[in-house]
């Protein structure tokens, strides 16, 4: 007797495209029209990192009013860095405000071959920060807030030590002041620079005559 099972299919029927309700081939898969093309992601110009988030309270007539305070560092990894702190009703608002403050307070860091041109030491309130230059290949010998700020500023090799308070806000601003006080090698008062300045002054006098 012949097989009368209606579900049985021939090899040709099994390989045929499946039909939709309207009689056409079903949509979907890799060739479907519903897939949107992926948009290329733009690279961020600045590296933004959150250093610390704290919840603060303010006593008002009805009780306590809780808000959030964010400490953010922003840099381009090319000798520019800034630190900002701000408060907001929620964490996102506080971080956004702090980022804007940091971008308005950018400083230029004077580096020499990926490290500091000289040793520097600064103190802000109870925070005491010491920064030292290091040889190539040393890396960043720092931790916590100091390490993050140096990374964002583009420092490759450095030694650091936190000698005072561990308050992250004071430590961050002490690090920024230390970086801001760096003097490039071209402006050092040395014997070579004095000789060059004297020769330049004499040449200008001769040209003036």
Features:
single chain, alpha+beta, Double Stranded RNA Binding Domain, Ribosomal Protein S5, domain 2, four-stranded mixed β-sheet, 5 helices
What order do the helices and strands come in, and which of them pair?
Elements (H helix, E strand, L loop, with lengths): L10 H5 L31 E14 L2 E13 L4 E9 L2 H14 L2 E2 L11 E5 L2 E7 L6 E2 L2 H10 L4 E5 L5 H13 L10 H18 L1
Parallel strand pairs: 7-8
Antiparallel strand pairs: 1-2, 2-3, 3-4, 5-6, 6-8
State the distance separating the first and last CA atoms. 125 Å
Order of helices and strands: HEEEHEEEEHEHH
The CATH topology label of one domain is Ribosomal Protein S5, domain 2
CATH class of one domain: Alpha Beta
The average pLDDT is 81
What is the β-strand count?
Answer: 8
Radius of gyration: 32 Å
In CATH, the architecture of one domain is 2-Layer Sandwich
Helix content: 25-40%
Overall body shape: elongated
> What percentage of amino acids are in beta strands?
25-35%
Uncertain spans, ≥5 residues at pLDDT below 50?
none
For the biggest β-sheet, the strand order reads 1-2-3-4
Biggest sheet statistics? 4 strands, antiparallel
Number of helices: 5
Structural class: alpha+beta
Describe the model.
With 209 residues, the chain is an alpha+beta fold. Among the domains are: 47-107, 2-Layer Sandwich (Double Stranded RNA Binding Domain); 109-184, Ribosomal Protein S5, domain 2 (2-Layer Sandwich). It is 29% helix and 27% strand. The protein contains 5 helices and 8 strands; from the N terminus they run H-E-E-E-H-E-E-E-E-H-E-H-H. The chain has helices at residues 11-15, 91-104, 144-153, 168-180, 191-208; strands spanning 47-60, 63-75, 80-88, 107-108, 120-124, 127-133, 140-141, 158-162. The strands form 2 sheets. It has a 4-stranded antiparallel β-sheet, sandwiched between helices. A hairpin with a 2-residue loop joins strand 1 (47-60) and strand 2 (63-75). The protein is elongated and about 80 Å long. The model has no long low-confidence stretch (mean pLDDT 81).
């Amino acid at each position: 007797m012949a097989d009368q099972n209606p579900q049985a299919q021939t090899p040709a029927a099994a390989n045929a495209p499946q039909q939709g309700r309207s009689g056409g081939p079903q949509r979907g898969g890799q060739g479907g029209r519903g897939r949107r093309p992926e948009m290329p992601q733009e690279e961020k110009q600045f590296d933004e990192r959150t250093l610390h988030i704290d919840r603060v309270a303010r006593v008002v007539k009805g009780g306590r009013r809780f808000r959030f305070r964010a400490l953010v560092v922003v840099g381009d990894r090319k000798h520019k860095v800034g630190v900002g702190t701000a408060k907001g009703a929620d964490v996102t608002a506080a971080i956004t405000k702090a980022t804007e403050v940091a971008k308005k307070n950018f400083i230029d860091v004077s580096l020499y071959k990926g490290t500091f041109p000289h040793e520097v030491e600064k103190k802000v309130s109870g925070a005491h920060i010491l920064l030292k230059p290091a040889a190539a290949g040393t890396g960043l010998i720092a931790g916590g807030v100091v390490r993050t700020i140096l990374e964002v500023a583009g420092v490759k090799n450095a030694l650091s030590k936190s000698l005072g308070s561990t308050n992250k806000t004071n430590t961050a601003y002490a690090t920024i002041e230390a970086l801001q006080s760096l003097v490039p090698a071209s402006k050092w008062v040395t014997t070579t620079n004095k000789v060059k300045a004297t020769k330049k002054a004499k040449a200008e006098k001769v040209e003036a005559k």
